[in-house]
Every structure is written in structure tokens, then in C-alpha cells.
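agent> Task received from the user: take the single chain below, predict its 3D structure, and emit C-alpha cells. No templates, no multimer pairing.
agent> Plan: (1) validate residues, (2) run structure prediction, (3) serialize to C-alpha cells, (4) report one or two observations.
agent> Step 1 OK, no nonstandard residues flagged.
tool_call: predict_structure(input=
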Amino acid sequence: MGLLKNLKSIFILAYMFSILWIVRNLLSLIYLFFAPFTVLFLLYALVGSEVLPYALVGAYVMTLVQAGAAIIGDAAWHKLELKFQDMMVASPVSETAYLLAEALSELLYSAPALIVLSFFILQIKLGVLTLLTLLTVTLLVWLLTSFLGFFISTYVPNIRNAWQLSLLLGLVLAVLPPVFYPIERVPEPLLWAAYIPPTTHAALILRNSIGFTSPLPPSYSWLILLAYTITFIMLATYRAQWREK
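)
tool_result: status=success, residues=245
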């Protein structure tokens, strides 16, 4: 299947998975939009305005993680309940095109919240470098979480486990690591563990772009984030169960 036809398939499938569903079920979009702002409100109410830069970056990264983690549930549903993935296997649509369609559909769900959050982040420090950093981090985190989520979805035995794993992945990547809070708050014995999740480095990069220094040079965080992205892309490409055995 040619590149142009694959691109067409990606956008058509993403439209089916997201826009059509949003039109028929607007409540799902409302929930996804307000979820990160609920966390922002709680942090502001409990701590005060000084936490807003950290909270904005954390909410942005969390929204990207939720988009990737949601693929576990949606792709498993398409595969196990609708048998849609089986139809794609029998069609000219490639595995990568189908995966990117799933990923793009989740990004479209999260787009309204991401646009508003990015607007507030850019208000802290408006500049071309900040904008480019925001866009690049968005691309990398979206790709690494989406490919990881799709890989996991192909091994899930039932839908209930899929939604549980989706919530667990969000907890591991967006809540426990220093995404919403400074990494300096992590106790010294646990500091090594705080640097393991890729979302830690995404948050450190974004904070650095708006003027907050990091104990780790940004170049290291960029390399680690890129390495995670490549690793998860390779993992999903070569190890995901595209066809039933």
C-alpha cells in the first residue's frame, strides 16, 4: 500500500474513531477537557499561585499521557469486541497506519485541553524557543505513550484489564513521577527512581523552557526522551501482536 493511501487511511480511521464519536457523544470530550483543569484547581486551592507553573506543565504532560494510555482501552475494544483490527489485518492498511490512526484519534480527543494549557504555558514565557520546545515535547510524549499503549493493548485478554492497565499507566507516568511537583522534593534515596520515567524528563524540559532550572542538563533529558520514544516505537513495531496466533 502506497504512502499516500496509508496517510489517507490514517486520517479516515482517526476521523471514525474520534470525530464521529465526539459528535454522537459530546460528554466524553467534556470530561477529557475538564480533567486536567480539575487538578490545576485543586493544586491552586491547596498551595497557591506559586505552584501554577509546575501545575500547568504537569497538567499538559498528564493530558498527553492520558491520550497515549487511552489507546490501551480503545484499541483493545476495537480488537476484542468489534473485531475491527482483524478486518484491518485482512485489508491493505498497514499495522503502523492503523496504530497511528488510533494515536491520532486520542490526540484529537485531547486537543482542546492541550491548546488551552499550551496558551497558559506560553503566557509564562512567550518565545519561539518555548513554542518549539512545547511542540517537540508534545510529539515525542505522544508518540512514546501511544506506541507503548498500543503494544500493551495487543496482549490484553479482556476489556476490563485494558481499562485497568490504562489507569495504571497514567498513574505510573503522570502522577507518581515529579511531573506536577519539583524533582527537588524527591527524597535523596529515591532520586534515581524519579529519573527513570520519560515523563520526568518531559516535565524538566518544559520547565526549563519557561525559566525554571533543572538539576539535570536539558540535553540529557532530550536524549533520554528521544531514546524512550525510539525504544517504544521499535517495541510496538516488532513485538505487538498484530495478528492472532
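agent> Step 4: summary for the user.
The chain has one domain: 3-239.
agent> Done.
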